[in-house]
Amino acid sequence: MTPPDGPATIRFHGPPGALRALAAADDAPTGSAELALGAAPGVPVSVAPAGPGAVWLTASLPADTAPGPYPATLTPAGGAGATAAEIAVEVHPEPRVVVSPPSLVVRGAPGEHVPVVLTVANVGNVATPLPRFGAFGVMARRGVEDAIGAALRSSRDGIDRVAVLADALARRHGGLVVVSDIAGHGDLAPGEVRDLAGTLRIPGDQEPGRSYAGTWLLAGTTYRVEIHVGRTSTRASTGRAPT
Fold first, then answer.
1. Which of 172, 208, 178 shows the shortest CA–CA distance to 113?
2. pLDDT digit string (tens) for 33-65?
3. Which domains does the chain carry?
């Protein structure tokens, strides 16, 4: 097979903060360089060996750079002129949000409806939908470990021991937590920050004096929620876990 004339196209792929290209050493800059998308200012490119005759090129673009293909130029440091190779850049989608507080701690009585407020920031490069409601299961604190211990201490064998484990897990399950009437739902644009305010219902069959925890899949991220159950209403929620 006859190799093509001239340098090959250098193709960058990846999310904005981690663009990478594998190139022939003869086609790439020998030292540091800058990658510019269209008329935008250039960003530094690092060059590292990938093996005999090949190098890795890496660059980091602004986090909100929209996904898609871009025309680009690769210029060696010192402004010696763009490389002869053609440059192709494909920015991948990177949905990512940050939630504050980093975890939610709720206190209340069984069956109580507790108001909760979260702040969500879209630090990715695509719009992220925020939910109108949420639902997730919770387990008693150390519930899984205690259930396994109960099964291991059981005098039953085989499938009967598995039944002991299943029964113990069921007794320690805290039910389904529902967060409803969430104000602020809808698409969150890259770079946007928004409050989510809703009502969390503590399952009515949770035991006063016990603590439960679960994970809410919120806008593509896993968000930890703890519930401390009392006998009377406290109408309180906080992002700081008790010491």
1. 178
2. 899 988 888 899 999 999 999 999 999 999 999
3. 10-91 (2.60.40), 97-238 (2.60.40.10)
